[in-house]
């Protein structure tokens, strides 16, 4: 047994030599190196405590796992990329903070226990990574959404709900868009999900941009911290080219 | 690699006969009133060590036979419960009652067949729809304790009202709030109230199917009954209103916390960070159950704070 382990370790160290720039994963996931190669290989990757990812240890509802990310201690952020490597579709969402605080919350579907990670790309072309393990009973990505089962999703498609709270320096903003967010992994239901959400002010200036992928929850709710003044224009488009828009008047 | 080795160590650990091999729940029928016995479960969540022995179940020995109230979390639990009942009486099982459709209350039904199994209409429907899924979930959470367990749907729809069985006047009270269909059984002869999971005692209440506003109404109704002993679904029995008050107090705090959080625009994770008042520190599993309840109840409460724009 010990000999076998030694051989394993030797093989492991040889294969590491070709990818020595990949830092050792503090979460100990066997998929970590593959994730770096698939999504982060163009830039240097570091683990960074300033990227705070908060999620419950256990996914009580695998269709609705709450995740909060706060990378606001970093400056010069280009994008924040969320992924869960043991999901059949690892990419969850990309967030471009633009003029808003680099902190947001949403919920996603988990298929089995997995780390959920935020990789934050800064102007100096470094990926800063933080993450946590989430345990799960599973099945979130291969179950039909509730509104699919109820059959009434089309009656509400693209309805946008929102609210704004002034909380000192930022405006806490919640935006929800009615959409089944189908993963394409349920037999007979092709993937159908919101691909982009843009938030702009009345001068057309970008406040924040979100690119969701299939694992984002059905009828997603995004909690954001936007800048202080003015109205917010919301424009969203899904992968079937349906466009939805609304305006929060202030 | 470290995980792999860790898994190996765990595997060896759990393979020891010390642990699960006996699959003995250690059930011990505790007398709580004349002819009335109780099995008190641990104040824990389901796990591989307790095998699902986390619930209170009980039985009443009447002149016509035994009335069983809830059957535990597995076939083995039901079988061991029946063996303990047989230490007290040889009378036939007159009737088995399931108080609601949660798995720790009905998955022992199998062991009592062919005795009639009764539950409220909504509970029968819940077990029919979700029983297999619940059983599957408990296999995952408790492992081999569940071997051979299958969901047995009650064959009798229980009508609310009074039934006289072998010298015991039982009142079936149809309520809701913990789930959409909750039964309380009040034995008017002995004054024992089986409150099901409408009442928790020193164990944080659970909310996967809760309807809080109905739960408050149910607690008010239970508080008015002239009981001598109240058997909560989880936790020690009491002879006063303390368990009802504790359940109501926590539920009110929970709902207020979620509503205040939603009104401030908090995310689910932010609400989960809420400081738990000191008076609830003695409730088993309070932190993890708060997190679960946020997942169950917050989306609906949050939605009410958002306005439709288009």
Structure description:
The complex is a heterodimer of chains A (about 250) and B (about 300). With about 250 residues, chain A is mostly beta strands. The longest helix of chain A is centred in the first third of the chain and has 16 residues, at about 1-15. The termini of chain A are far apart. In chain A, about 15% of the residues lie in helices and about 40% in strands. Chain B has a 7-stranded mixed beta sheet with strand order 1-2-3-4-5-6-7. In chain B, about 45% of the residues are buried. At the A-B interface, α1, β4, β10, β11 and β16 of A face α8, α9 and β13 of B. β10 (about 160-165) of chain A pairs antiparallel with β13 of chain B.
CATH class of chain B: Alpha Beta
Strand content of chain B: 15-25%
- The outline of chain A comes out as globular
Percent helix of chain A: 10-25%
Kindly give the count of domains of chain A.
1
What's the end-to-end separation of chain A, in Å? 68 Å
Number of strands of chain A: 16
What would you call the structural class of chain B? alpha/beta
Assembly state of the chains shown: heterodimer
Instruction: Give the helix tally of chain A.
Output: 4
Instruction: State the shape of chain B.
Output: globular
Short description:
The complex is a heterodimer of chains A (250) and B (310). Chain A contains four helices and 16 strands.
Identify the notable features of this structure and list them briefly.
heterodimer; A: 250 residues; mainly beta; Immunoglobulin-like; ten-stranded mixed sheet; six-stranded antiparallel sheet; 41% strand; B: 310 residues; alpha/beta; Metallo-beta-lactamase, Chain A; five-stranded mixed sheet; 13 strands; 18% strand; globular
């Amino acid at each position: 047994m010990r000999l076998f382990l030694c051989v394993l370790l030797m093989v492991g160290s040889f294969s590491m030599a070709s990818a020595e720039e990949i830092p050792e994963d503090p979460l100990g996931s066997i998929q970590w190196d593959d994730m770096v190669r698939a999504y982060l290989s163009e830039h240097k990757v570091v683990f960074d405590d300033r990227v705070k990812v908060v999620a419950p240890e256990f996914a009580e509802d695998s269709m609705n796992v709450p995740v909060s990310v706060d990378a606001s201690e970093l400056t010069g952020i280009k994008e924040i990329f969320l992924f869960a490597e043991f999901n059949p579709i690892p990419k969850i969402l990309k967030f471009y903070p633009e003029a808003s605080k680099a902190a947001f919350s949403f919920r996603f579907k988990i298929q089995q226990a997995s780390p959920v990670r935020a990789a934050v790309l800064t102007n100096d072309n470094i990926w800063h990574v933080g993450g946590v393990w989430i345990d799960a009973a599973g099945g979130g990505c291969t179950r039909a959404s509730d509104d699919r089962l109820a059959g009434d999703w089309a009656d509400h498609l693209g309805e946008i709900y929102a609210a704004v709270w002034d909380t000192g320096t930022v405006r806490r903003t919640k935006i929800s868009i009615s959409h089944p967010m189908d993963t394409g992994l349920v037999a007979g239901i092709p993937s159908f999900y919101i691909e982009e959400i843009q938030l702009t002010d009345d001068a057309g200036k970008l406040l924040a941009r979100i690119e969701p992928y299939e694992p984002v929850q059905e009828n997603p709710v995004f909690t954001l911290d936007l800048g202080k003044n003015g109205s917010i224009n919301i424009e969203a488009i899904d992968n079937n080219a349906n466009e939805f828009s609304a305006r929060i008047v202030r | 690699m470290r995980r792999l080795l860790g898994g190996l160590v765990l595997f060896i650990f759990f393979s020891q006969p010390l642990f699960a091999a006996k699959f003995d729940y250690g059930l011990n029928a505790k007398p709580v009133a004349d002819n009335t016995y109780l099995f008190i479960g641990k104040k824990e969540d389901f796990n591989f060590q307790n095998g699902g022995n986390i619930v209170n179940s009980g039985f009443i020995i009447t002149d016509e036979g035994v009335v069983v109230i809830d059957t535990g979390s597995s076939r083995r639990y039901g079988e061991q419960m029946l063996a303990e009942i047989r230490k007290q009486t040889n009378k036939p099982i007159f009737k088995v009652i399931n108080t609601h459709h949660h798995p720790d209350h009905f998955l022992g039904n199998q062991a009592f067949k062919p005795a009639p199994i009764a539950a409220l209409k909504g509970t029968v429907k819940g077990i029919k729809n979700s029983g297999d899924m619940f059983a599957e979930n408990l296999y995952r959470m408790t492992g081999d304790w569940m071997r051979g367990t299958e969901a047995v749907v009650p064959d009798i729809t229980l009508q609310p009202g009074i039934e006289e069985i072998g010298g015991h006047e039982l009142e079936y009270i149809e309520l809701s709030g913990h789930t959409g269909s909750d039964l309380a059984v009040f034995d008017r002869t002995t004054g024992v109230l089986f409150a099901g999971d409408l009442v928790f005692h020193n164990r944080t209440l659970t909310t996967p199917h809760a309807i809080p506003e109905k739960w408050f109404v149910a607690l008010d109704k239970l508080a008015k009954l002239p009981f001598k002993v109240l058997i909560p679904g989880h936790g020690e029995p009491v002879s006063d209103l303390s368990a009802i008050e504790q359940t109501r107090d926590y539920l009110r705090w929970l709902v207020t916390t979620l509503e205040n959080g939603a009104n401030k625009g908090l995310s689910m994770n932010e609400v989960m960070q809420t400081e738990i008042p000191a008076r609830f520190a003695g409730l088993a599993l309070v932190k993890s159950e708060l997190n679960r309840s946020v997942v169950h109840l917050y989306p609906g409460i949050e939605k009410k704070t958002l306005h439709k724009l288009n």
